[in-house]
Specification:
The complex is a heterodimer of chains A (about 675) and B (about 375). Among the domains of chain A are: about 10-100; about 110-160 and about 630-670, Kinase associated domain 1, KA1 (TATA-Binding Protein, 2-Layer Sandwich); about 190-315, no CATH class; about 455-585, no CATH class. In chain A, about 40% of the residues lie in helices and about 30% in strands. Chain A contains 15 helices and 27 strands. In chain A, helix 4 packs antiparallel against helix 7 (about 165-185), helix 7 packs antiparallel against helix 14 (about 605-625) and helix 11 packs across helix 12 (about 525-550). The longest helix of chain A is centred in the last third of the chain and has 32 residues, at about 490-520. Chain B is mainly α and about 375 residues long. Helices cover about 75% and strands about 0% of the residues of chain B. Chain B is built from 13 helices and no strands. The N and C termini of chain B lie far apart (about 65 Å). The chains are: A alpha+beta (about 675), B mainly alpha (about 375).
Chain lengths: ~675, ~375
Amino acid sequence: MNPTPPSFGKSVFELLSSMRFAISLLSILAVASIIGTVLKQAEPYNNYVIQFGPFWFEAFEKLGLYDVYHAAWFLVILTFLVVSTSVCIYRNAPNFAREMKSFREHVSEQSLNAFKHRHEANTTQPPEALAASAQRYLEGQGYKVKNLPREEGVLLAAKAGSWNRLGYFLAHSAIVLICIGGLMDGNLIFKVQQLLGYKKIETRDIPQSQVPAISRLSPSNPSFRGSVQIPEGSSADVVFLNVADGYLVQDLPFTVGLKQFRIEHYTTGQPKNFESDIEIFDRAGKKIREATIAVNHPLIQDGIAIYQASFADGGTRLSLRGWNLFAPTASSFPIEGTVHQNATLTSAAGDSTLEFIDFRPFNIEDMGGDAAPARDTMSVLGGSSVGDKKHLRNVGPSFQYKLRDSRGQAREFSNYMLPLELDGRWYMMSGVRDAPNEAFRYMRMPLDADGNLETFMRLRGALLDPALRPEIAANFAHQALPQNAWGTEIEGKLTNSAEQVLALFAKGGFQTLGQFIETKVPAAEREKAAGTYLRILELTAFEALKIADRQANLPPPKVDDATGWLVRDTLNSVSDMFVYGAPIYLQLMHYDEVKASGLQLTRSPGKKVVYFGSLLLTLGVFFMLFVRERRVWLLIKPGRALLAMSSAKHTIDFEKEFTQHAQALDSLAK
Amino acid sequence: MELALNQPAPLLKRLSWFDWLFAVIVATGGLFALSRFGEFMDIYEKGILLTAIPALAVFGWFWKPFRTLFIVVGAVSLFAISQYHGDLARMDEAFFLKYLIASQAAIMWMCALFGLATLTYWAGLLSRSEFTMKTASAMTWSAVAMGFIGLMVRWYESYLIGSDVGHIPVSNLYEVFVLFCLITAMLYLYFEARYQTRQMGAFVLLVISAAVGFILWYALDRDAQGIQPLVPALKSWWMKLHVPANFIGYGSFSISAMLGAAYLLAQRGILASRLPRLEVIDDIMYKSIAIGFAFFTIATILGAMWAAEAWGGYWSWDPKETWALIVWLNYAAWLHIRLVKGLRGPMLAWWALGGLFVTTFAFLGVNMFLSGLHSYGTL
């Protein structure tokens, strides 16, 4: 007689409801979740290509690793978890419900005798009397007791802690509910629509009004989480949903207008509060309400929660002064610009484009450290509260722009509006970098005694002007030599040297000078030559400043430390200009700030389901872990009483309780 | 006759005069705080304060030593506050503040006492001296008192820095490490009294000492003990609930890991005669995980609800959220195996010990190695 093999359906049912399967699912879920924390999710795809190379990029993309938690295979695991838990509930429910109600009245004396926890006592009392006092005792201990007549005596069947089983139902139904709630708020509907070809991700960078219907979601879309940036004084009736390497446009049932965005600061300079004054209009343009939202204080409108999520520049107008760095004159020209817009610069070398990227009214800098992290959008959510904040200082506004030449090559610049004090002297700072992942390198331009750039610019012009070189050199030689050497061959030689040094410096700064020394001077004398050339350069530069001041109808420069440092700093700065990468420096004179607030709008119908599930989960966990289910039987016959006790979990508490009941029986039975 | 059967009397009848005095003190303190500072609180904060009154009273009735701790901490903290005269600089001038009960001084005393208690527990364990271990318990109690005084005074100090800076001291890694030490020690002290065994103190205090080591390094080397104003995302009443609940979880899980280690050693015969029976260690390990799991569940739910208000979604698969889920799944699996399969023994002890690494990564590793929204403490 072979037992019939179980049917396929039965085997699947067995597997799904088995403990081993549940534990395996929990483990797989845990491991799968780790992937998404190790690999940064939902980054621009370009970053992944750079990180992994084209081959692995594609392999990982196929596996859905850039958005693990929405990948099909992850959803399958979750589905299995829901199914397995449901099957488990279905399988155990009838049994457990019966257990909760049952007193297990049909135990026989024989089976009670087989219990591990049993205790026998002799008694002289009649069975009914002992049963009555024992019942009072057990009820006092929190038991529900049933008194059952038996032949020759009484059986007390008692139970306590049945809610433990209820906890099982609550906790496991909660898991199912939470997963269902989560799926309601997931992007399952869109995934299906995408698969069937009804919807498509938009990857082009085009105005939202031009995004075709296939990449738009209707206002009735039950669940979404998108964001939008609104400049002050503007409004938006859509949000953008980032999906894979593109986006979708979600139309809203209302319009959000931003009146004002504010940042409050603590006295230490750290941000204290981000707030947006917003207005809600219906589709007809009628104002419905006004509100102020802040981090931790969202606004709910038509079931859509509006959150303060980030901020950015909303198109600040900048009044700039452009300085031609390589022109021999110290003249500047005005430029007007707006953040997020472009301007054209015309020069002999061809047209180039100025792309204004950002404006920051505050820059909290670690003085001595590097410059601020450059991000277009500032999150308002993160932030670390510990760190070396002793040297932090607000150094005032800065603006960022790209200069793109006619061949399309671009460099990024970041200029501060106010001068910074470094080593006790004041400079205008301009940072430059070739790629967004680099740190800014700074060119620092010295300020004169009046706090202006003019002296630096004048001296720079004079140093670069070939027409002035003979005069500068002659004045230098005249000054450097004693009177008896004037007009001699020595003076001519020195003039020539000075002119050569100036010419080399004007060609490429210290670097050109260094190269010249390396090719022309024997190794042993290089250090000495470099020292001499540097000295010549500084002294000629001072002569150049005298000439430049005279030409500008200014009194001659004072011979003091400040002038000395100004000359030295100018030389450094001019030398840096050759690697600065732009022929102009843009000085910010005035600005008219326009901020933009980054809002996140969420509709999540699953939230209530998840919260309800969470409540059940909490109750369930407490019932399961802290309510102990125990059963007691007391079979009383004339002359003796038999106590037996059972529990699903034999803990130390259970042992203690059994001992207590046994002692109680002894004293009751006396 | 039935009275001799230690029938439980109704709860209210079992209370002593001290229980009632304690409840009156808690209520007076809470209501005074409400009347004095109520205008600066929102409705939720008032709710938390008012709920805390019965919660603390009942907790003191349930666990009697808490009453004394509460009164001592309250009295000393009030004394410390009175010494400030509203001037933060008094921290370095007033004798008591400078050497004992300014927040930083008290926390350093806590560190020292925990260190001493660890050594004393080990000395008691190795010499089988009950007296030595009683001393160690007393030191642990003193450390807990000093730690709470430190946090209370720190709370006050934060308002002296600026009325807009003041906040409950559970907002950064430094503060929560102190909280971790205190909660872990209190949970341990509860088990110690409940099971009438002090031998596990040697093991549990090791994990507290490790945390103390971190606090000292963080304060002395990284200068992280300063009170910093809250970032906007943390300015919410949710913090008062979410953070402590989480640390009851972390503390319990750490205790269970240490007991797992004790179990494995005892099972191999190491220190076996000095440690409690294996069943006792196993039982406390289970209880500890049960408490931890329940509170971790609540903490994660509270965190999700907070995220729904601050981050725009109750679940964003942020690294911290994901790792909280992993920790939760880990202990859910542990409990399933123990409760459903009825499995006991070394396997679960190893698992509880391994759980410490998962928990530590969720607590610290995520901040150190992964970036996300929940980066409130950097190293």
